[in-house]
Structure formats: C-alpha cells, structure tokens
Design brief:
By secondary structure, the protein is an alpha+beta fold. The protein has helices at residues 4-11, 60-73, 78-82, 86-92, 101-121; strands at 24-29, 36-43, 49-57. The protein has one domain (4-121): Sufe protein. Chain: A. The protein has 5 helices and 3 strands, in the order H-E-E-E-H-H-H-H. Strands 1-2-3 form a 3-stranded antiparallel β-sheet. It binds FE2/S2 (inorganic) cluster (2 copies). One of its GO terms (biological process) is iron-sulfur cluster assembly.
C-alpha cells in the first residue's frame, strides 16, 4: 500500500525537532482528521533556507510527507520553497494511497505558514504567498 520511500521516511524521519529563534514557524492542522504539523525554517540574509525542522502529531503519511518536505525546502530560496506543492512532495515519495492524499497537504500548508511568519517578522511581502487560514 505504501511505497518504500514512504516507509523509509516514516520509520526514519529526517529533520525532526525544533529550531530555536527560527526565522519562521508555521503550525497547521488538518481539518479532516485533526492531525497537526509544525514547521521551523532558518532563513539567511539572502533569503535561502539553511535549515528546516518539523514536528508532526499525526499519521504515518503525514510524518513521511513532512520529512520529505523538509528535505525539499532545504537550500531553496523563499520563492522556490513557495512553489513546492503537496503533489511535488507526493511525487518525491513515489506516491501515496488516495485516502492519504489529504495528509500531504499538511506539509505544503506548513511551509506556507512558516514563510508567512517569516515575511511578517521581517515586514516583507512574498510574491504569491497568501495568508494561511
Ligand atoms: Fe490522523 Fe488517524 S486520523 S492518525
Ligand atoms: Fe491526518 Fe494523515 S490521517 S494527516
């Protein structure tokens, strides 16, 4: 049912934890199931994501997508990170079962929420980023 990559990221999630004094923090909840994900971003002066950590209180698919999402945003610029969709995260994991697609939305929303927090803290506007719900 789950791809090898999903099982790998679920059993051995990358970048779990918190970043103290993070540039941006985003917490999102999944309305469908009540699972929660928090993402921390460390962004340098040139707008490049230097570090990314997450904590997910949720199902295995949410843990795996969060883990993969942190790997995808690392080293990206803010603008590039904004373009990472849940579809891209799922593709990087070789897919998810249909019933688990909503889980991958947590990762995309958490990235956006953390970027919004970063932009607000720095009084900037990020093109194409809308306020998270
Ligand atoms: Fe998220 Fe069951 S609904 S683990
Ligand atoms: Fe809720 Fe996966 S079942 S995020």
């Amino acid at each position: 049912m789950y791809s090898e990559k999903v099982m790998d990221h679920f059993s051995n999630p990358r970048n779990v934890g918190e970043i103290e004094n993070a540039s941006g923090v985003g917490t999102v909840g999944n309305a469908k199931c009540g699972d929660i994900m928090r993402m921390y971003l460390d962004i340098d002066d040139s707008g490049v994501i230097k570090d990314c950590k997450f904590k997910t209180f949720g199902c295995g698919a949410a843990v795996a997508t969060s883990s993969m999402a942190t790997e995808l945003v690392m080293g990206k610029t803010v603008e590039e990170a904004l373009k990472i969709t849940n579809k891209a995260v799922m593709e990087a994991l070789d897919g998810l079962p249909p019933a688990k697609i909503h889980c991958s939305l947590l990762a995309e929303e958490a990235i956006h929420s953390a970027l919004w927090d970063y932009a607000e803290k720095n009084g900037m506007k990020i093109e194409g980023l809308t306020k998270p719900k």
